[in-house]
Design brief:
The complex is a heterodimer of chains A (113) and B (115). In chain A, strands 2, 4, 5, 6, 9, 10 and 11 form a seven-stranded mixed beta sheet that branches. Chain A has a four-stranded antiparallel beta sheet with strand order 1-3-8-7, with no helix packed on it. Chain A contains no helices and eleven strands. Chain A is an all-beta fold. Chain B is mainly β and 115 residues long. Chain B is built from no helices and eleven strands. In chain B, strands 2, 4, 5, 9, 10 and 11 form a six-stranded mixed beta sheet that branches. A five-stranded antiparallel beta sheet of chain B has the order 1-3-8-7-6, with no helix packed on it. In chain B, β6 and β7 form a beta hairpin. The chains are: A mainly beta (113), B mainly beta (115). Chains A and B meet through β4, β5, β9 and β10 of A and β5 and β10 of B.
Amino acid sequence: ETGVTQSPTHLIKTRGQQVTLRCSSQSGHNTVSWYQQALGQGPQFIFQYYREEENGRGNFPPRFSGLQFPNYSSELNVNALELDDSALYLCASSLGGARYEQYFGPGTRLTVT
Amino acid sequence: ELKVEQNPLFLSMQEGKNYTIYCNYSTTSDRLYWYRQDPGKSLESLFVLLSNGAVKQEGRLMASLDTKARLSTLHITAAVHDLSATYFCAVDPAGGGTSYGKLTFGQGTILTVHP
């Protein structure tokens, strides 16, 4: 059973550009959540996808969007990048439902200059 | 809005000493998670606490949950250098079957264990 993987590991973008981050869920997991962790802070919930539909969103603007594919892999897209978007982006997958733990991927470190 | 507060935020300990990290939260929940994070790394799951009175222990760490007081504790016994890391608690607010997994994290406690 493979764990949660994310790509790329690191990337550097310029303010105003767009970026796509990818997450491959743990085998059989139908729920994926994305988090943003700024330096020195706890992770903040961005949104969750369950069976390809958005299933809740945190306090993030619409320029943060996502997709979940039939194989339950997922993308996080950020448009019009701002300097404050620099952070570690974590995805977490789970089986969904009431009692299932989330498993976090290794993260993507995004730097916006 | 759910708020999760940890204290202390910084903890410097001597090896062999005991200490407790506290996690208070502001709304009803019966599930709480503790994670460890090493610098530049992702989150490592330590404990999943799913009911009032839950207590779990792994090695030198023990976590407990009091849902009535909205309080969880992470107790460290006889600290060793390898425990140096940042520790986060995270609360999953109560909800229906497909609403779980939207965690609210505390600010983190940076633990440094000195010889």
